[in-house]
Write a structure and sequence with these properties.
By secondary structure, the protein is an all-alpha fold. The chain is built from 6 helices and no strands. The chain has one domain. The longest helix is centred in the N-terminal third of the chain and has 58 residues.
Length: 160
């Protein structure tokens, strides 16, 4: 083997090593990008729930006539101001329950945290009359997987 052959062999090994290192770096970067994208999606959903609920509360608390209008245009019952505020609370809770369900489904909440929150949902859906009253109209605005979960585990199918 000549010196030129030896140098070529070493060069080939160095290039192969560089390619392997490059592949590993590319995989690590792709993994980080997926994690960053997921974190951004999660933060966006959380921000959406917080902003929607906050803007509803801030606006409708001062304008009961607009809250009644909002409820009726979405297919919810609208009666007096006090009952409508309860309905607004239920709408906010639907969003929070949906967010927590989706977060658990995507592995963001441990089973321990979810177990407690699921019990809160069961009480809300089974013992608070406004949840049953609002559910038929509300479910079309919620994630289908959450609707299926509620109807399966909380007994919220129409007619029950």
């Amino acid at each position: 083997m000549t010196i030129a052959d030896l140098i070529q062999s070493l060069s080939l090994l160095l290039v192969a090593g560089a390619l392997i290192a490059s592949i590993r770096q590319t995989r690590a970067i792709a993994h980080q990008a997926r994690q960053a994208t997921k974190a951004l999606q999660d933060a966006t959903l959380q921000s959406f729930v917080r902003n929607q609920n906050g803007s509803r509360e801030a606006f409708f608390l001062e304008h009961p006539e607009l809250l009644a209008w909002h409820l009726s245009t979405r297919g919810y019952p609208a009666t007096d101001a006090e009952e409508n505020l309860r309905r607004l609370y239920v709408l906010n809770k639907f969003d929070i329950h949906e967010y927590n369900y989706l977060a658990h489904s995507e592995g963001q909440f441990s089973d321990d945290i979810w177990s407690g929150w699921k019990n809160v949902m069961l009480v809300d859906f089974n013992q608070v009359p406004e949840f049953r009253e609002m559910w038929p109209a509300a479910k079309r605005f919620l994630a289908p997987s959450f609707v299926n979960f509620v109807e399966k585990h909380c007994g919220m199918v129409l007619g029950k």
